[in-house]
Amino acid sequence: RSLGEAAELLGRFRDLRERYPTEFVSFDVGAIASNAIYPALERAAAAWKPLEECPDLREALELAAEVVREGDGSVADPFSLLLRDTVCFQLQRYVGQRWDPLDPDELIGFLDRWAKVFPGDIRSHILEEVVLPRLAKAVDAWNPSTEGSVPIHVWVHPWLPFLDSRLQELYPAVRHKLAGALKSREPSDATAPGLVSPWRSVFDQRAWDKLVATALAPRLERILVGLDVGPGAQGRGQFDRLRWVLMWSHCVPTRALCALLSKHFFPKLLRALYAWLRANPDFGEVAEWYEGWKACFGEDLEAQDVVRDSFNDCLVMMNAAVSGDDISLYDPSRAEEEARRKEAARGTRTARSTEFDATLKDLVESFGIESGFEFLPKGGRFNKSLQVYSFGGVSITLDNRRQAIEALLEGKWGPVSLERLRQLAEARQRAAA
Q: Which of 5, 53, 219, 344 has a CA-to-CA distance to 255 between 20 and 30 Å?
């Protein structure tokens, strides 16, 4: 039979179903209809090029869905079995071997157009067992340093409405790739925030804070530590260096960015101003210097207490100098010493930039990012009821209760330190080279 003949036959079966719905189900007429049209659909599917539009095949399957489908489209449903042995076989082979994951619109558009064809369970099977593994391979192969590389969010985020929480199994690898991308970019690269910021609303807050703390905060801290804020800073390109830090304000939590500025920028800004004012400077040059630094900050950051108060302290010191007052009263070292005494009295512990209660898994993941080794769970692998992970190709387990890391070495599990784990991963890397 041709597709046209199969469609005509399905029309007759549909009439039977409408006239005798109870008997149609009781005598399993849907399975009879499925067997009758299978040869025609099999031939059409074999000639079909997946993802290409084929109205005759799609319309025949839509009609088959009306006639043959039973219930909610479970895998035992006659229509699901019919799909599995025809178009699903072709589609799975195409997606697994030929589909380019960097072009999500092609497959998403196909699934939208064929929405009436694929019942719930079949659609979930395609997404979870065919699309998701293909995406995982693409994430693993993604190299942001390659010229013309497509940002990873461009081709992963379109699948959020379809795969939702199932995409989370890709996120550790994505974070590792993003951390590597940041290390390879120059501090002045204005495209870098656009590579990372789209993930802020996708990762949970804890995961985002870990990425910022391990991959981004040290980078920004190094820029601030090396910043020369003294007179003539503009001519030495120092304003631009500060902007390299502030361009990350949409990625770094405001409290963390303010903590970095409070520790590494504003104290030396005040010290530089104090030393300059004691040397009888040209106040016009001082004002220009002050306005230059202040102009680097956007309105949102400028409204933060530490930023507003620090620039106000600069103004107070400048006004005192212009008025001929004793500016030693505004010596920044006094305020710094007072702040240190208060901190010691409180006995508080200040984190580098962002804070979270670190589990053993958090620490190993952060160590992996810093060391350049992937840290990923091995699906379905457990040892003594503990999830098995791969750290740079080395199988390990993490016991958070005992704060112990064990690695599989020559067929036996044994405890290892982080440094030993790094050495094992490096040895594995050298052996594979």
A: 344
Q: Are 368 and 311 in contact, with CB atoms under 8 Å apart?
A: no
Global model pTM greater than 0.90: no
Name the band, by pLDDT with cuts 50, 70 and 90, for residue 344: low
Chain mean position to CA 239? 30
Q: Is 296 exposed, middle or buried (0-12, 13-18, 19+ CB in 10 A)?
A: middle
Predicted confidence (pLDDT) per residue in 167-184, tens digit: 999 999 999 999 988 888
Closest CA to 360 of 401, 419, 413: 401
Closest CA to 182 of 192, 194, 197: 192
DSSP per-residue letters across 167-185: GGGGHHHHHHHHHHHHHHS
Backbone angles phi, psi at 313, to 5 degrees: -60, -40
Q: How far is CA 392 from the centre of its chain?
A: 20
Write out the E strands in 320-424.
Answer: 375-383, 386-391, 394-399, 404-409, 412-415
pLDDT digits (tens, 9 = 90+) for 213-243: 888 999 999 999 999 999 987 778 899 999 9
Q: For the chain, what percentages of helix, strand and coil (3-state, to nearest 5) are there?
A: 65, 5, 25
